[in-house]
């Protein structure tokens, strides 16, 4: 059966069992990935992501509150102040046309 040709042209070597004595690199990687430093780093990264998510959520809520408050309270005030200024300008223009001294 070994004389049969395979498609692809390249045959890969058989994989070794990482638990057996022949897999030195795999056992080093598994020991490193299971070490306490790596697990603490992973936990710190998860905690940082959790805090960042909460911070973004609360910042978004604060921005929503500030934006809607501005639209409800400040924009009408600005519009009313502009109307008042236009009315004062119109009264001043009429007074100068009629010849009355400005106030």
Automatic annotation (TrEMBL):
Origin species: Trapa incisa
Sequence similarity: Belongs to the Tom22 family.
CDD domains for the chain: TOM22 (cd22884)
GO cellular component: mitochondrial outer membrane
Transmembrane segments: 62-79
Membrane topology qualifier: Single-pass membrane protein
Top-level taxonomic group: Eukaryota
GO terms under biological process: intracellular protein transport
Keyword annotations of the record: Membrane, Mitochondrion, Mitochondrion outer membrane, Protein transport, Receptor, Translocation, Transmembrane, Transmembrane helix, Transport
Location within or outside the cell: Mitochondrion outer membrane
Name of the protein: Mitochondrial import receptor subunit TOM9-2
UniProt KW Membrane keyword: yes
Region annotation (Disordered) ranges: 1-26
């Amino acid at each position: 059966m070994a004389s049969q040709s395979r498609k692809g042209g390249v045959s890969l070597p058989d994989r070794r069992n990482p638990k057996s004595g022949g897999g030195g690199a795999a056992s080093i990687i598994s020991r490193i990935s299971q070490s306490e430093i790596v697990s603490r780093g992973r936990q710190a990264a998860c905690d940082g992501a959790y805090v960042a998510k909460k911070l973004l959520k609360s910042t978004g809520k604060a921005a929503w509150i500030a934006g809607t408050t501005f639209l409800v309270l400040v924009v009408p005030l600005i519009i009313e102040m502009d109307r008042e200024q236009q009315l004062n300008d119109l009264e001043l223009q009429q007074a100068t046309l009629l010849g009355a001294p400005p106030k």
